[in-house]
Amino acid sequence: MTSEDEGEEFRLQANSELRFEVESKASVEIEMVDGQAEMFGTELAKNKKYQYLSGAKVAVFTWHGCTIKVKGKTEVAYISKETPMVTYVNTHAAMEQMRERADAENTRGPRMLVVGPQDVGKSSFCRILVNYAVRLGRSPVLADIDVGQGSLGLPGTIGAMVVERTADVEEGFQQTAPLIFHYGHNNPNDNLQLYNMLVSRMAEIISVRCEQSKKVNSSGVIINTAGWIRGAGYESLKQAAGAFEVDVICVLDQERLYNQLKGDLPDFVKIVLLPKSGGVVERSKAARAEARDGRIREYFYGLKNNFFPHSFDVKFNDVKMFKVGAPSLPESCLPLGTKAQDSQTKLVPTLPTNSLLHHVLSVSAATAVDQDIVETNVLGFLVVTNVDMDKSTFTVLSPSPRPLPRNILLVTDIQYMDIK
Ligand code: ADP
Fold it and tell me: For the Clp1 C-terminal domain, which residue ranges apply (predicted)?
């Protein structure tokens, strides 16, 4: 179904939702002309036009009824009265009670892990809960340990931040000073030991951050995870639950996972099974790869092409480049007393070569190589757009102008072709 270009009005009754998808290479503008509505927990302003770009999948929900004008090419656009929003707001209310108790007793607020298969709306659910908390004056921590999408950093990283403002209706949460760790691959299974170590490290830092602020501490932590829930993926979810010392695990749409967690986790962890929204759209492998690419593009160019990245040459000699994790050797080949596992989290110096081309690099916040670089956060990212072995330089795409803020760079597996 394609809506008319001159626009179409949708009248939504209370507790219903307008869902639409923007056609590829098109854009859609929406405007709430009457009533009240919210998008993944952020209230829409009346008579304000919001724009969505190619491929966006959006839901506008109303508790009390509203009228929405939609202009542009939508692939689908329909109203649904079947939404899990009442269950979601009840979850929020339960969290709020835990926060009130934390305030009264001067203790820690709720820590929630959100788990489930791919494409069940985990990220959207986290966004709704965080927004609802912020709307009540809370400052929760949002953590994302899904290295496949990297919504807070880039794919290949995990991140967390304290959220003090609701997400922007078009652009999502404003990322002021997120804490990002370099992992380097888009699948946790590529280096599980490193992945688990970084998740634990992030949990530790978040706990320290919570101790510094009573408000953040009682607001709690919401942790979004990857849809990898079997085998080693399941083990890493349990590991994350332990590292963050979570009180609640919300399982979206999978009874099997819910029962498994109920059987395996201690009783003081409350496991809740929640339905997914019928509006969540399943993405193919290709669509997921495209989303990853889009996220990198957005980092450098902005969602609406409103950022202007810089391009400049860097001398090989001016930087120190590393990879994390060495290929594992059989234990018989290792020095006495070392384990094969250790090599997975080892920092390995790398010399620049042509193979760096198109790779994303993380700029470490570390200032000296004797710091624990693997467990130090990163400041930002570069993409290698050219390598000149004769001149011993490489060209980077960078969000900020020359010089680089630091000279310790970590190479990721992730590639991005900078074609406009
Ligand atoms: P997950 O984190 O489980 O992979 P997401 O929250 O990223 O799932 O949701 C997948 C896609 O579905 C996203 O593009 C999101 O915008 C869209 N989506 C989520 N909820 C709805 C809904 N109620 N109606 C329409 N689209 C939705």
Answer: 308-418
